[in-house]
Amino acid sequence: MNKNKLLVFFIINGLFNLAANYAHPITPTVIKNLELGDYMFGVAYGAMIGLNFLFSPFWGKLNEQINSKTTMFICSLGYAIGQILFWQSTSQNTIIFARMFSGVFTGGSYVSFLTYVVNVSPPEKRGQNLTILATVASVCASFGYFIGGMLGEISIDLTFATQAVTLAGCGILFFIFCKKDIASPVKQKFSVLIKQANPFNSFKQAKIFMDKKYFIIFTICCLAYLGFTAFEQSFNYYIKDIFNLTSAYNGVIKAAIGIISLIANGTICLWIIKNTNVSKSSMYILLLSSITMIGVLATNNIIIFIIMNVIFFALNAIIIPVTQDLVASRSNDNNSSIVMGFYNAIKSLGGIIGALMAGFFYTFNPRLPFIFGLIAFLLATFLSYYYYKRNTKYRN
Fold first, then answer.
1. Of 45, 20, 68, whose CA–CA distance to 353 is shortest?
2. Which residues form the Major facilitator superfamily (MFS) profile domain (predicted)?
3. Whole-prediction pTM value?
4. One-character DSSP codes across 219-249
């Protein structure tokens, strides 16, 4: 029964991740049509991910008091409303507000996904199920780009309308089909919940579990997401701005990435988690990603540029579940909600810095965001090497 419930959850989660990415390939077109500055691709995404960052710990704490499926329902509906606001935006300020509104609820969605999988999985299956979750997110995100890109060729309005309806529908499905994942919810007064809604107070919960090892792991995660976001957001806008490719091309490229990621996660990633020292393996994956990023910067040929980016995104699809496993393997039943909430917040922090820096660097030189992302990945690689050596020395 638990396996069936989890399977249904992964199916709905896949549909959610498809819909969550419908608007990404058309965002550069929206910015160009409204004649906004080039920096807006970074500012718009940074606005969303910024509120994701601020509210993730709050949603993580809230999941201790109400079941994750309820939070998924609330946040899916909120995300749908946010995308409707984005759809109707006609200026820089309204776009930023709409993205911030969506960000509040995307944080809750992804924290709840992680918390749900951790809570309903037996300890021996936790790493495997988190890998499946990351694989579903990565692959479906890529195909979501594809669908969104194709819908964008037909109509921008159709893309946004389809996205909003699908997100809202997923929220309803989560609530109906997911099981209750906490047996004894923590009951607190509404006034206490309002106080905890202060996002900065929520970060104080990190002191419950934070130690030096966690600090290093979270720094690695932050740097990796910083570099990835700078690359991804710049790539989406770069191929529209420099190569003048339509949203359909963006969608096709991301679909190819999705297929490669599916194969990589179903084979390489699971093998790494089951059969290797994960901290050592993550170091090598980060190194390979850095080398690939150098390849992106070394070419002006559009074909080679796209191929190197596809390889980079495929490697990133592996590093996400690997780092998730590093974090989750050190958590326990008492702190899993807070740990995974903080993990999602750290991802968002990297995304904020990566998106904003990419947008502003792009206005000076379209290649600068890629250089910035490379530096972040090199730092993550060196820090991962330090973490591995420290653990090896400790065990010896």
1. 45
2. 5-392
3. 0.76
4. HHHHHHHHHHHHHHHHHHHHHHHTS---HHH
Helices (H) and strands (E) in the chain, counts: 16, 0
Cβ neighbours of 225 (radius 10 Å): 27
Q: What's the CA gap between 67 and 374, in Å, rounded?
A: 40
Q: Which two tokens stand for residue 8?
A: 């249904």
Rounded CA-CA distance 227/305 in Å is 17
Model confidence at 3, pLDDT cuts 50, 70, 90, reads low
The pLDDT of residue 200 is above 80: no
**Cβ–Cβ under 8 Å, residues 17 and 142:** no
- Average pLDDT value for the chain: 84
Residue type, 94: T
Residue 241: both structure tokens together = 């701005």
Q: What pLDDT does residue 199 have?
A: 61
CA–CA dist 301, 298 (Å, integer): 9
8-state DSSP, 25: G
Cβ atoms 105, 62 nearer than 8 A? no
The CA distance from 293 to 189, in Å, is 50
Block residue for tokens 């990297």:
350
What number does CATH give the domain 2-178+210-395? Answer: 1.20.1250.20
SS3 64: coil
Q: Is 257 helix (H, G, I), strand (E, B) or coil?
A: helix
Specify the pLDDT at position 193: 62
Q: Which of 186-200, 211-225, 282-296 has the lowest mean pLDDT?
A: 186-200
Residue that is written with structure tokens 């944080």 in the block: 107
Residue spans per domain, the chain: 2-178+210-395
> For residues 161 and 50, what is the distance between their CA atoms, to the nearest angstrom?
24
Q: Which two tokens stand for residue 101?
A: 């509104």
- Angle, CA of 375, 376 and 380, to the nearest 5°: 115
Give me 118's structure tokens. Answer: 């951790």
Residue range 248-273: mean pLDDT, rounded: 79
The Cα angle at residue 104 between residues 143 and 371, in degrees rounded to 5: 60
